[in-house]
Amino acid sequence: MPQSQTQATSPTTSYAKGDMVLFRDVERFWLGKSGHTFVGRVERAWRNAETGKVLYDLTELSSSRPRHGIDSAYMRLLPPADAMRDIDTAPLSEPDTGAMPPAAVAWLRQHLTQDATLPAQR
Q: Which residues have a Cβ under 8 Å from the Cβ of 51 and sit 6 or more positions away?
């Protein structure tokens, strides 16, 4: 009796210029090399003339290194709400900054060096 085969499908996602994404260099990942995952900013989208597949050019944020022809199957959108959640939910009344997420500490340090005052509570 023949067995049926199922294929997993991933949802098609398109990205716009300026989107922040997490990208995995699949070859480096499968070879066990370090530096296979990075945060990037989408610079442009284009369609490959031979395959018809939409590919992306990114700028790696940590080094400003350009990455060309990135397959969206190895990219994930980094939503602004997720990036800002640490700041929005930081326990500002805590005397120990170790209790705060790193993003909240970075935000506070930046604002304290600019104004030397905390922003008003909402």
A: none
